[in-house]
UniProtKB/TrEMBL annotation:
This is Alpha/beta hydrolase. It comes from the Bacteria. Keywords: Hydrolase. InterPro entries: Peptidase_S9_cat. Residues 188-359 form the Peptidase S9 prolyl oligopeptidase catalytic domain.
């Protein structure tokens, strides 16, 4: 009997370990596997007299200005003017393209112009260019300007360079060229050897290639501007490239420590935190990265250049605690702008005037 019990116990333990390992593998994939494609969770229920009524999403009532994007079109919406049972009515400022009508499914677009480019979104001339990196050629675009300091924008996870279009006019008025880049695993860009995101541990090398490109085109300095995961890639570039002419960093809703968003994502999915820890372990084993090395708060003393840091109190994707702690540790470098109501990478949308003033004041120091 003892032998049978021991055998059964061993089988149960093996199955338990296999189950935990399989769950950790699955959860790790949610972090490091690229995913593509837009979703359209909101439904238009009425369009009339400069207003549009929407239902179906958690952030419908976010304050400020947003795009409204659907497969065949794009519009601009403003503040909330009325709420109803499960619906929100917002100002309809412009329908740029397509037919906005009841029954159309859309998403509230913090980027404002979906996947457009500087010309179609802003009316600004630009060039499509190629940045050569260690894995091959990476597609990018650049706007023109007379300044020798370029701005290199680094988008977030599963995003594109179009994420930065909101900010290009500020730099254009200052005469600063903007280089909107792609990095490994982006559409049209080379894939990493394992096809996985490394959360900044290797993607910083593609930023290094962009800096080399800018210098080859006459830039004598760069500002690195990162959003979300891009806001974690940019500090890794700054830490790994002490000899490059990086004059400053601009970080918007950055991932300063990957433990926070991984734990938050687990909580939102009903995954116990202990299993999130297993997922982190598997992430490190599958990619060879160290989450401790990607913790910018832990490495706060390593930074040498001025940093403009945007966070929003209602960010439900990346907890802002690490960013606030980083700002507390480096008050000599960090200018912190804290907004409310915009959500993840939504500080500009919630308070455009304040955001652009902070951006302009910071960039003017380097625009000559």
């Amino acid at each position: 009997m003892k032998r049978i019990l021991a055998w059964v116990t061993s089988i149960i333990l093996v199955l338990a370990v296999a189950g935990i390992g399989g769950a950790g593998w699955y959860y790790s994939g949610l972090v490091i596997d690229p995913s593509r494609g837009d979703s359209y969770p909101l439904e238009v229920t009425a369009v009339a007299a400069g207003r549009v009524t929407l239902k179906g999403g958690g952030d419908l009532a976010a304050p400020g200005t947003y795009g409204l994007t659907w497969p065949e079109g794009n519009a601009t919406v403003g503040e909330v003017v009325a709420t109803g049972a499960g619906t929100v009515t917002r100002e309809l400022r412009e329908v740029r393209q397509g037919d906005l009508r009841p029954g159309v499914h859309v998403y509230l677009d913090r980027w404002m112009w979906g996947h457009e480019d500087p010309r179609t979104a802003l009316g600004l001339p630009y060039q499509k260019v190629s940045v050569h990196g260690e894995l091959g050629d990476f597609p990018a675009w650049r706007t023109e300007g007379g300044s020798k300091t370029w701005v290199i924008t680094v988008h977030g996870r599963n995003a594109t360079a179009s994420e930065s279009l909101r900010y290009v006019p500020v730099f254009h008025r200052l005469g600063m060229p903007v280089l909107g880049i792609s990095y490994r695993n982006d559409p049209g860009a080379p894939a990493a050897d394992d096809g996985k995101f490394h959360l900044g541990a290797t993607e910083w090398k593609d930023v290094a290639a962009a800096i080399t490109y800018a210098r080859g085109q006459g830039a004598t300095g760069v500002l690195l501007y990162g959003f979300s995961m891009g806001g974690g890639i940019v500090p890794m570039a700054a830490r790994n490239l002490p000899g490059e002419p990086i004059k400053g960093m601009i970080l918007d809703s950055p991932v300063m420590d990957w433990n926070g968003p991984i734990d938050l994502g687990a909580e939102q999915r009903g995954v116990p935190l202990w299993l999130a820890s297993v997922g982190k372990f598997v992430v490190e084993r599958r990619t060879g990265i160290s989450l401790d090395d990607l913790d910018q708060v832990r490495h706060a003393a390593a930074f040498k250049v001025p940093i403009l840091l945007f966070v929003d109190d209602d960010d439900n994707s990346v907890p802002i605690g690490p960013s606030l702690e980083f700002a507390e540790r480096r008050p000599d470098l960090v200018t912190l702008v804290r907004t409310k109501g915009g959500g993840h990478v939504g500080s500009w949308n919630a308070d455009r005037a304040r955001y652009e003033k902070a951006l302009r004041d910071f960039a003017m120091r380097f625009s000559a």
